[in-house]
Amino acid sequence: MSYAPPPHSPSFAPPPGPPPAGQFPPQATIPPQPAQPVFSGPYGVSSPVPASSQVISGYGHGVGYEILHRDVNTLLKLTLQPNVTIKTRAGAMVAHSMNVKLEGKVKLTNFFKSGDVMQQTLTALNSPGLVYLAPDAYADVMVLEISPQTGDWIVGDRTLAWTTGVTKTAKAQSFGNALMSGEGLFVTRVSGQGLVFVTALGGIHPIDLQPNEEFIIDNGHLVAWHASTQYTSVSAGGGLMNSMISGEGRVLKFRGPGRVFIQTRNPAALAGWIASMVPSS
């Protein structure tokens, strides 16, 4: 698979202005659009990732979306066409209109199949419905377009929501990669046809790799990567002593072609900082 940089950036809608005093804006619905959204990147991702002050918006697979209040207080607004269903991780729902039906599901058989033992579905009944979702931490949200043409993605456990045409599969990785990728023995591979909304701690940044180009990434900053991208676990700095002195330990070496998304904050480092601020008894 050869890789070429995206030819242009997608367009983004500015956030609407405040309503006149004493008035409330009507709930806007997105009319039916072409069946597929427009994505400029070769891997089905809007590229480059827009500045956090911009609103990402689009439409696809019966779902209109706006990613609001980026990049650490992100809110995902979805407009579902009649009888369209969206699946989400458990606890992601913030609010929804009265014509949206929410159902929670527990499937123990999904533990080794997709990792989603608990999830919820939201369906618009008879008319367009509004749904608001949010990550469970200070996180940004991006959207991936999944199709046979763009290929599959590895997303760890960071999926916030996905359309019904997307299949999530638990994929086993080697023990060394499982130990250092921060994703465990299984990672989640998304395939099929549809939209996947992925979260990250802090902001999100893409790294595009040319064929045979290599790049070192700290496992705590890894978000998602294209399934065509190879990776292995290596010692930071090339040796045990350098790894210990640098404080990085082992890291991941990716090889292109492909695209890797990183997050600007490391969850383990953030947890350590918060713990250090708590007074000892």
Order of helices and strands: EEEEEEHEEEEEEHEEEEEEHEEH
Order of strands, main sheet, comes to 6-7-4-11-14-9
Number of H/I helices = 4
Number of strands: 20
Rg from alpha-carbon coordinates? 20 Å
How would a crystallographer describe the biggest sheet?
6 strands, antiparallel
Fraction in helix: 10-25%
Q: Which percent band covers the strand fraction? A: 35-45%
Q: Uncertain runs with pLDDT below 50, 5 residues or more?
A: 1-15, 22-29, 33-40, 177-184, 240-247
Broad structural category: mainly beta
Distance between the termini: 57 Å
Question: Averaged pLDDT, please?
Answer: 77
Question: What labels would you give this structure?
Answer:
single chain, 41% strand, 281 residues, 4 helices, 10% helix, mainly beta, 6-stranded antiparallel sheet, disordered N terminus
